[in-house]
Design brief:
The protein is mostly beta strands. It has one domain (about 20-220): Jelly Rolls (Sandwich), CATH 2.60.120.200. Helix content is about 10%, strand content about 50%. It contains one helix and 16 strands. The chain has one helix spanning about 1-20; strands at about 25-30, 40, 45-50, 55-60, 70-75, 80-90, 100-105, 110-115, 120-125, 130-140, 145-160, 160-165, 170-175, 180-190, 205, 210-220. It is globular, with a radius of gyration of 20 Å. It starts with a helix and ends in a 6-residue tail after the last strand.
């Protein structure tokens, strides 16, 4: 009888394990390079893991139009429902221009980039040289500046739809086919102007044309439920 009970319990455990294989949480805390980011350390630009942050930096002397870019393969099945949460701390939000982005769905042919500023949200599809092919949306949103302000950005897949939110507020929803789990960030410094322009689901800092952003944490929740 005990042997039968053990066998049944083992079967139930196996069934539950298999059923929950696609229901998980993965967290990148940047305490170590868990997701195998290819760090960049050059004279005028860098993307390095420091003290529990992925720190992106481009100085004002970096003149090329091509932004700093860092991507890696995210541990997520993009064909199923998921929620990716980005937690960011930026030292200051100044009245100058910078370009910062969340890259998603990067393939051999192109990529999509989520753009956010104090006043503007947009999604741009481009080729891998950075040339814009299409701007999907351009929506005004409120973001407050300040020092060491945490910002939370989420990208959630529900069925065929992608839902974008900033600090808990949904800012855009659209159908979008995902083909790749190659995701990451881009950063480019800019000239001093009114209105801090930042490219990406991340908010950045600009000081005298320099650009800096500190990514604190990335959380991936892969849900078990079938796509609707």
């Amino acid at each position: 009888m005990k042997r039968l009970f053990f066998t049944l319990a083992t079967i139930v455990l196996i069934i539950n394990t298999v059923a929950g294989q696609d229901d998980f949480r993965k967290v990148e805390t940047f305490n170590r390079n868990t997701w195998k980011w290819d760090e960049v350390a050059e004279k005028h630009k860098s993307a390095t893991i420091q003290d529990g942050f992925l720190v992106l930096y481009v100085d004002k002397l970096y003149k090329t139009k091509k932004p700093l870019e860092i991507t890696t393969r995210f541990p997520v099945n993009v064909q199923r429902n998921f929620k990716i949460t980005y937690k960011v701390v930026f030292p200051a939000l100044s009245q100058q221009t910078s370009t910062l982005g969340i890259i998603f769905n990067k393939t051999d042919y192109g990529k999509s980039v989520l753009k956010i500023s104090e006043n503007l949200f947009e999604i741009v599809n481009s080729d891998n040289s950075g040339k814009n092919i299409k701007t999907e949306s351009k929506i005004k949103i409120p973001l407050k500046g300040g020092k060491d302000v945490p910002v939370t950005i989420t990208i959630e897949k529900k069925g065929a739809n992608l839902i974008f939110s900033v600090n808990g507020m949904k800012i855009y929803e659209a159908q979008k086919e995902l083909q790749s789990s190659e995701w990451g960030f881009s950063l480019q410094s800019g000239k001093a102007k009114g209105g801090a322009m930042f490219m990406g689901g991340i908010i950045g800092q600009v000081i005298s044309g320099d650009a800096k952003v500190m990514i604190d944490e990335i959380i991936i929740d892969q849900v078990e439920a079938e796509d609707n």
